[in-house]
Design a protein that fits this description.
The structure is a single chain. 55% of the residues lie in helices and 0% in strands. It is mainly alpha-helical. Helix 5 runs parallel beside helix 7, helix 6 crosses helix 7 and helix 7 crosses helix 9. It comes from Aspergillus mulundensis. This is F-box domain-containing protein.
Length: 356
């Protein structure tokens, strides 16, 4: 029997059995009958159920999408099902999925002989850890929490309340993916002078060019934001979801290599300092949420582009390192556990996302 003649209930069951939202939309586009059944049904619940399978846990995404300053971050929130909420679920979920590809490369960076793909359960744990870390960034890495208030006891307790929502194993998963994000930040988005020199020599082994490093972070003027597509970066935390059109045509520097060596570009200028200066730069950049880090990795290969993005965030961002690490230590000590043993268990893959 042709699919065209199946009962509507069976067609809806087929829609609900799809693995991805793209599959649902593609199926709806195959024929007029499928399109009519999908559009006349209660399609938002169908799409949300499929989103749970593809991007879940959706409840953790909803905590990000519904966060605001009117209530504490550690309180669980629900939201009515709307097209706008579904759009945010898809955007955040797709950003988290990109970390599923990056994680094995970084996790088994040295032990590459044992590198493997993640299982479905590990992918779920990774996405969950990404969403929870994202919520922490959304709640506490913003303008209201400047460098002067970060160590106040009431502020530390407020941050710790959110982490107390999760078990020690959950926190290990978050710390595990945070270390991977840190690797991406310090080696790809803000590479040190030494990293730039090493990669330049590897790419051009016969070159005699001596790299000239700039020890200062020369943030561009405000009008430098225009070429990079940051029209209103502070209006919404999701500014890294700009359209492909905006990124491609407003950002010609996207296609330039940071190692290009000519009279218009010095590869050494792409370095972010040595050791101590670079450490503080990375600490600042770790306040970016996982979606922003992915966006910078994909669209800002040049230092000037990253600097323009940082400038668009405001003065509170610079010289104000991330607070998740110290809050995590606070919570682990409150639970009577040893932080060094906690981190060792993650390194040895006894805790975290991928276990041995």
């Amino acid at each position: 029997m042709s699919f065209q003649y199946l009962a509507t209930e069976l067609l809806l069951h087929i829609f609900r059995s799809c693995d991805t939202i793209s599959d649902v939309l593609s199926l709806a586009a195959t024929s007029r009958r499928f399109c009519d059944v999908f559009n006349r049904s209660n399609k938002l619940p169908i799409l949300m159920n499929v989103a749970e399978m593809e991007f879940g846990p959706v409840d953790d995404i909803i905590q990000i999408a519904t966060h605001n300053t009117s209530q504490p971050a550690h309180l669980f929130r629900t939201a009515p099902l709307t097209a706008s909420l579904l759009e945010q679920v898809v955007r955040i979920g797709r950003a988290a999925q990109k970390w599923e590809t990056i994680y094995p490369v970084k996790k088994w960076k040295l032990d590459y002989e044992n590198r493997r793909s993640l299982s479905d359960e590990e992918r779920f744990r990774l996405r969950r850890a990404i969403y929870r870390l994202w919520l922490y960034h959304r709640a506490f890495h913003r303008r209201e929490y400047d460098r002067y208030s970060r160590s106040l006891r009431n502020v530390v307790v407020e941050r710790a309340q959110l982490l107390h929502n999760w078990t020690t194993s959950d926190l290990a998963e978050m710390e595990d993916i945070r270390s991977v994000i840190g690797d991406v930040v310090q080696n790809h988005i803000c590479p040190s002078n030494g990293t730039i020199a090493r990669k330049f020599r590897k790419r051009y082994p016969e070159s005699n060019h001596q790299l000239t490093f700039n020890i200062h972070l020369n943030y561009p003027m405000t009008n430098a934001l225009t070429p990079y597509g940051f029209d209103n970066p502070n209006s919404y935390h999701g500014q890294y979801f700009h359209s492909t059109h905006s990124t491609t045509f407003n950002n010609p520097a996207k296609y330039r290599s940071r190692f290009r060596n000519d009279i218009f570009h010095e590869p050494g200028s792409e370095g972010w300092g040595d050791e101590i200066p670079h450490y503080y730069v990375v600490q600042d950049m770790m306040k970016l949420d996982p979606g922003q880090v992915i966006w910078l990795r994909e669209h800002c290969p040049l230092k000037e582009q990253v600097e323009a993005f940082v400038l668009s965030l405001g003065d509170w961002f610079r010289d104000n390192g991330e607070t998740f690490g110290e809050t995590l230590e606070w919570v682990i000590k409150e639970r009577g556990e040893d932080m060094e043993e906690f981190r060792t268990a993650i390194t040895e893959r006894e805790l975290g996302i991928a276990w041995d």
